[in-house]
Recover the amino acids of this structure.
């Protein structure tokens, strides 16, 4: 008996030891690669890093949507990425056709128009996301998790095809009314206005979200339901309404993310698939269900993606971005399933 | 059994058990001889699939039956099945084409001169090799990931399903070595066949591609492969391993307590499901005479999943039905319906929205008939009486040690 127990504990030690060594070796390689690239061209490195920061913030907004829903329902809402894409397409229509914002519009006009678009799109897609939950997921609360997950995959395709039906396969963009010229330059490192706009829009949204979740009654209800739905129902929390509110926030975040995304890139009906996967990876990396973790994970992924596509010294390049992102996802799930900031939960592995 | 051999009349149950499949097999086997007259029938004639379409439908159905082992029997959601399909197809492309023209090696190749450079093995051998190789890929993917539960497993398999096609697409320069020929794919791939000696001895065709009966030969071969797949699938389900899978699907913790080694059993379901994906991929590559990276994308995985769900998770007959119906829609049906719309003056192209249609099928089935068209009795019971699978709620309390650290196996 004792011998068996000893062997068992030895195997466990050896196994976790090996895993840890392999994990640290992997981290070391990445660190060497980063330092090497920095030594090659520090200015370029920081410049690329700023791109990563900007993209990371956009990923963060989408990742928050995944992590909020996962935190409360333990459901990977595959449709979230496609809601993001659809909201971006609708936003482009609103900016271009409805408001008719042009490059030479006045600063006040641009700011007002952007704010209006932001509010309308966030409200609209909060509603869309709540509808998706109501139609597709609510009936499956008592079903096995697999059923809800499969339904989410189906919903993702439905939303994507709605976007396809309305907007066809063409890419949409908005006129660059926020100039791509540099906003400021320090020691030869520049940062453009449209990237700055991303920061200017994203940070208040994040602050608002933090305030909502930590300080309002509804936010407290959300955290309570995430911890224990039955007990919160007994405490008089309306669980259904809380879940709806969560989906509404996730939808609004997707809408805001899509608008800042539009400031830099063009998008079409299937943009959401790829970005959704990146954002989901970010959420897992940070520790799914953990809000600050999602933002941290998104920033890390943003940096990695930007470095991979922008640097030159022993860099795989953009052909491999998707593989790298998924490689990170798999590595995280194998080495540290609870994520960077998450706590180890029973389903976290 | 003895009674049947003596010629005693079959009772009702046996008739249902053997009669119906036999009838279907007979009808399918003679399909090539009546398909053309069927096509001439007014009204429905346009909707009859050609032999070439049937081959593709059967290949997809094979994969659906394979996926059913993973998703249906063992209850593991695999969203990256396309990786196995790709692995199988590229095995055929490596071992039966001119891809590696720095070597010349022939073994049982048919229809090409022995001087053609490249590795050319007999397609039959390659199909088996592809199955085994894919099995190995399945085990390699499974070992680190099968410890994860349900939804994480889904996302990791999705990840592998994306990495492998990207690797294939970018694999034209693996440290200077052209492994996959990049976005161009590998083509042509050798044809199946039996060679001269078997032809003269048994009358088997020399080479499928060069035969006048090309479509029919491929069709019959695909049918035989499908029958083998279905047979294996049924035998597996009723085996000790199959019962272990279903036990895990119903209640992982209880299964582990009863002595079912979780990791090993799950890995087997992965490996065996992958095997059929590899076989189907290799055969399809040989049929198309090429393996192209554009064929392998996430939507295929969902398409296959949709077949299993439509038919009924865990039911072999369901996977067959779902596979043939959706395969038909994918290959020919939607295009035919679209052209009918066009003739009627409505401009609507259903092929453009095919994945939206599959998505809608998935959601509707999940909401209104989660057991699928052909209900598997056991699965229905699970849904009605509930399983110990953690539902959406309660998750944080139901998890136990066995979820993540299966020991003693």
């Amino acid at each position: 008996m004792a011998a068996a127990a000893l062997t068992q504990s030895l195997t466990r030690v050896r196994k976790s030891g090996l895993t840890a060594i392999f994990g640290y070796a992997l981290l070391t390689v990445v660190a060497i690669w980063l330092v090497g690239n920095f030594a090659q061209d520090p200015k370029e490195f920081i410049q690329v890093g700023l791109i990563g920061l900007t993209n990371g913030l956009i990923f963060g907004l989408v990742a928050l949507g995944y992590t909020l829903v996962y935190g409360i329902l333990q459901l990977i809402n595959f449709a979230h990425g496609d809601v993001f894409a659809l909201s971006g397409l609708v936003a482009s229509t609103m900016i271009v056709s409805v408001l008719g914002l042009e490059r030479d519009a006045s600063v006040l006009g641009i700011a007002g128009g952007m704010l209006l678009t932001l509010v309308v799109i966030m409200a609209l897609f909060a509603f869309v996301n709540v509808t998706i939950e109501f139609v597709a997921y609510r009936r499956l609360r008592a079903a096995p998790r697999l059923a809800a997950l499969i339904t989410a995959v189906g919903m993702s395709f439905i939303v994507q095809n709605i976007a396809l039906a309305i907007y066809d396969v063409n890419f949409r963009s908005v006129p660059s009314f926020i100039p791509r010229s540099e906003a400021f330059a320090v020691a030869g490192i520049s940062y453009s206005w449209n990237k700055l706009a991303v920061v200017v829009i994203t940070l208040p949204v994040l602050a608002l979200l933090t305030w909502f979740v930590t300080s309002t009654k509804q936010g407290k209800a959300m955290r309570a339901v995430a911890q224990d739905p039955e007990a919160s129902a007994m405490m008089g929390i309306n669980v259904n309404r809380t879940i709806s509110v969560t989906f509404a926030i996730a939808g609004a975040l997707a809408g805001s993310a899509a608008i800042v995304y539009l400031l830099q890139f063009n998008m079409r009906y299937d943009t959401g698939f790829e970005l959704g996967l990146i954002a989901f990876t970010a959420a897992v990396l940070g520790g799914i269900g953990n809000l600050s973790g999602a933002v941290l994970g998104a920033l890390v992924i943003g940096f990695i993606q930007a470095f991979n596509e922008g640097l030159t010294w022993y860099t795989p390049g953009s052909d491999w971005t998707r593989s790298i992102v998924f490689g990170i996802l798999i590595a995280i799930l194998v080495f540290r399933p609870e994520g960077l900031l998450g706590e180890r939960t029973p389903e976290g592995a | 059994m003895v009674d049947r051999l003596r010629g005693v009349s079959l009772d009702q149950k046996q008739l249902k058990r053997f009669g119906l499949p036999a009838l279907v097999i007979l009808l399918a086997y003679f399909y090539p001889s009546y398909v053309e007259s069927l096509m001439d029938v007014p009204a429905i004639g346009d909707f009859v699939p050609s032999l070439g379409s049937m081959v593709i439908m059967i290949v997809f159905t094979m994969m659906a039956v394979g996926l059913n082992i993973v998703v249906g029997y063992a209850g593991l959601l695999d969203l990256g099945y396309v990786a196995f399909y790709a692995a199988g197809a590229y095995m055929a492309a490596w071992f039966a084409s001119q891809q590696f023209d720095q070597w010349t090696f022939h073994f049982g190749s048919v229809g090409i001169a022995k001087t053609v450079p490249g590795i050319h093995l007999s397609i039959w051998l390659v199909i088996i090799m592809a199955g085994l190789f894919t099995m190995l890929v399945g085990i390699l993917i499974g070992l680190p990931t099968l410890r994860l539960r349900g939804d994480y497993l889904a996302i990791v398999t999705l990840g592998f399903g994306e990495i492998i096609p990207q690797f294939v697409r970018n694999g034209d320069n693996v440290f200077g070595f052209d492994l996959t020929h990049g976005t161009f794919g590998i083509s042509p791939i050798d044809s199946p066949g039996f060679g001269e000696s078997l032809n003269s001895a048994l009358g088997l065709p020399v080479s499928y591609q060069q035969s006048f009966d090309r479509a029919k030969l491929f069709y019959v071969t695909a049918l035989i492969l499908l029958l083998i797949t279905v047979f294996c699938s049924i035998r597996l389900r009723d085996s000790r391993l199959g019962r272990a899978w279903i036990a895990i699907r119903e209640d992982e913790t209880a299964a582990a307590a009863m002595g079912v080694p979780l990791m090993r059993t799950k890995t087997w379901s992965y490996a065996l499901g992958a095997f059929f994906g590899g076989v189907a991929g290799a055969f399809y590559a040989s049929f198309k005479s090429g393996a192209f990276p554009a064929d392998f994308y996430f939507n295929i995985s969902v398409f296959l999943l949709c077949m299993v769900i439509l038919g009924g998770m865990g039911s072999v007959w369901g996977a067959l039905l779902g596979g043939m119906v959706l395969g038909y829609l994918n290959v020919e049906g939607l295009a035919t319906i679209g052209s009918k719309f066009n003739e009627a003056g409505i401009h609507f192209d259903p092929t453009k929205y095919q994945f939206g249609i599959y998505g809608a099928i998935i959601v509707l089935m999940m909401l209104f008939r989660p057991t699928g068209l052909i209900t598997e009795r056991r699965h229905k019971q699970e849904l009605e009486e509930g399983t110990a699978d953690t539902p959406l709620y309660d998750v944080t309390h139901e998890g136990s040690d066995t979820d993540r650290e299966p020991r003693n196996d």
Q: What stands out?
A: Residues 2-40 of chain A form the longest helix (39 residues). The first strand of chain A starts at residue 182 and ends at 186. Chain A has twelve helices and two strands. Residues 344-349 of chain A have pLDDT under 50 and may be disordered.
